[in-house]
Amino acid sequence: MRALTRWAAPVLALLGGCSSDQVVLMIHVTNLTPDVTGLQVRAQLDDRPSQQVTYAQKLDTLAVTIAKDNIGQGQLSLSLLGVGSSGCSSAGAQYNATVELSSPYLEIDLPLELLTHRLCKVPKGSFMMGSPATEAGRDSNETQHTVVLTTDFWMVDTEVTQQQWQSVMGNNPSNWKGSDLPVEQVTWLDAVAYSNALSVKESLQPCYQINGTMVGWADGLKCTGYRLPTEAEWEYAANPATPPRTIYAGADTADGVAWHSGNAASTTHAVKTMTANGRGIFGLSGNVWEWVWDWYQGNYEDLPRIDPIGPATGLHRILRGGSWNYPATLARVAVRTFTSGVSNYDIGFRVVRSSP
């Protein structure tokens, strides 16, 4: 990406003057498509979130102002997502630069580029995690309890497909072959590695520190690269944006929203062949089980109620959502199962990004 430097006059015209104690970055967003109706912007200065982001009136222009006395090393990281009327995004851009006091005015062109995945915004909030005692098929590890999520996040609108996996990882481990079929036969570690590789591909900071079979997550929910959802994030996203909750992701009956053993004919199916839930997210119930971040703990109601990320250690990782070879009752949004992290032809995953 080549920065096109223009000076002072256009900047001053837009801002109505410019203070000598500010550094101004003027961004002209290019490659806008008709479906982009807004911009989601996140700025970090010297690894600290910057609150001094000012939007111009036009969609294709953004002004970022930084007080000079806030600049230490001057390392600015700016992430943009082009958002449609549905609240989802298919295009974005990343800009990293060193802000210099000697150059207080900078104007650049920044093109939006097609993302590997379509992302849908899931605003922070609270919900009742688990299932009511009267729900058919309910297990004893689904105790209802209130959970609060304090960070917005973006969730990929489908399970990772084989085409998407191939474009990032260069291979295809799946048993059932098809570009629009969910990738499967991926271990939990494979899903973590994909998350980091996708972050690198889109010029984002990888979330995970991987050393053999050991995986660290130093920045937790503050990390803005791609990662696995936490168990709480997964269930929250599977629920409607407004109550009441639904038994499956998008409905109280399975057949219109989930591929399960009663309708899947013993195979996986292309993503987006069932109805999305109210957040625009497909396939959270059925098709393939989905890895999440957390180690399994049966009594999850004893974990912290605010931004839970599971216990620090464990023997098994959690799977959510059910699959093509299990009955519909196991595709309920509250179902919790687990395995040691091994691959199987009924296990896939999807990824998320925090939006702090």
Features:
single chain, 356 residues, mainly beta, 8-stranded antiparallel sheet, 20 strands, disordered N terminus
Summarize the structure in words.
The protein has 356 residues and is mainly β. The protein is built from 4 helices and 20 strands. A hairpin with a 4-residue loop joins strand 6 and strand 7. The longest helix has 14 residues. The protein is globular and about 65 Å long. It starts with 8 loop residues before the first helix and ends with a strand.
Can you lay out the helices and strands and say which pair or pack?
Layout: H1 9-15, E1 22-30, E2 38-45, E3 48-49, E4 53-55, E5 61-67, E6 75-83, E7 88-98, E8 105-111, E9 113-122, E10 125-129, E11 145-149, E12 153-156, H2 162-169, H3 188-201, E13 209-211, E14 214-216, E15 226-227, H4 231-238, E16 289-295, E17 317-320, E18 337-339, E19 347-349, E20 352-354
Parallel strand pairs: 1-8, 16-19
Antiparallel strand pairs: 1-5, 2-3, 2-6, 4-5, 6-7, 7-9, 9-12, 10-11, 12-20, 13-14, 15-20, 16-17, 17-18
